[in-house]
Known about the structure:
18 helices; six-stranded mixed beta sheet; alpha/beta; Rossmann fold; binds pyridoxal-5'-phosphate; five-stranded parallel beta sheet; about 40% helix; about 15% strand; about 475 residues; 13 strands
Amino acid sequence: MRYISTRGEAPALGFEDVLLTGLASDGGLYVPESLPHFSLEEIRSWRGLSYSELAFNVMHPFVDDAIPADDFRQMLDETYAGFAHQAVAPLVQLDTNEWVLELFRGPTLAFKDFALQLLGRLLDYVLEKRNQHVVIMGATSGDTGSAAIEGCRRCEHVDIFILHPYQRVSEVQRRQMTTVQGDNIHNIAVKGNFDDCQRMVKESFGDQSFLGGKTQLAAVNSINWARIMAQIVYYFQASLALGGPDRSMAFSVPTGNFGDIFAGYLAKKMGLPISQLVIATNRNDILHRFMSGNKYEQHKLEHTLSPSMDIMVSSNFERLLFDLHGRDGAAVKELLENAARGPVSIEDYRWRHARKLFDSDAVDDKTTCDTIREIYERNEYLLDPHTAIGVHAARTCRRDPAVPMVTLGTAHPAKFPDAIAESGLSVKPELPAHMADLFEREERYTVLDNDVAGVQAFIAKHWKNA
Ligand SMILES: *Cc1c(COP(=O)(O)O)cnc(C)c1O
């Protein structure tokens, strides 16, 4: 399988290189040159497969000759054995024909584990083969950092440095990062805010001379193709569990960077009958505004009760724009360069096509809390705030009650106790058994000044073979 850039100028790459590359050299994102397509008969024959067997069937065409089939199978077995539920992604019923797909049974209790647990193993495999080493550097305001650290804890050829703003992430989130033990894991608390952390990462990628040419930086942010690829699988899994592919499905997806829902769009293009995809956003609603009025315009960041969806622009949306423009890289390049300067629109017929593919809703904090409370009072089931946004949007956008509506449950409620408290419930969400001792575990992190040279010197000194 070959991968091409959404801006049409960077060289095409194979799977291994795409895995190690973040942005393409022309500023675009990599997408497969063509998608595999599965017949209904073939999908039907996957009924009853385990999650990891299904994952192999769905993902193997993307990986093809980069990893021998047996090695890939073993990697998938190990990845999904680490989830705290036999079904890996169990379904919970909320109402008639309405479901939550629980994607938070992985080590850090958020759906990002599905991709990052696999990505760490993929990276290590390819680096071992090439006898290479990388330093992963990332900034986090919470969720991604812990999932990335957990994903890389066993990697021999990777050191990971995660920057978080000192005293500005929740205690659960900090502990999920700082209690993971491993010589290759480095948590840095920067005396600044999240933007300062992000700026340092960006500057470091721009000039890697501080590493002395002995290793190179790699990114595991949400634009990495392998992350999208891993998220396609659970759309197939949920559908098969509910009578697919002989029945169409609807999915509602709490959305920030448009990664998770883009995976659903790909599942549909690969042959899975999906009749509705709902983009569910919080007040940071650039996607909802685009879907409602064909205007793509950056607004100021709002801080909400669903922080993992607090974004100003959705980086993966570029991948959809590429398809909407008939895969014309030059057109996408021009559009996004204009979008960096001010609001943009696309041709009306392209926008109408987007509206056929997606519905959308933006949900404020009060409605999020109302949804959490209502579902708890009716079902004694606690939603985290991100999932609650998905459930609300599913209900407002639903087109056909005969089609099963599945909301992706993106995080465990225990990760976001503030939103539960704010919804007026007195129940306290409990951490699952395998994390019950989180508050007793030993923490390891280094506090550094808000100064990029100091952070770079720390990294240069502490990676494995420095
Ligand atoms: C990252 C995240 C999201 C948003 O996912 P995208 O792929 O960026 O759209 C939603 N919910 C939770 C809990 C997350 O961690």
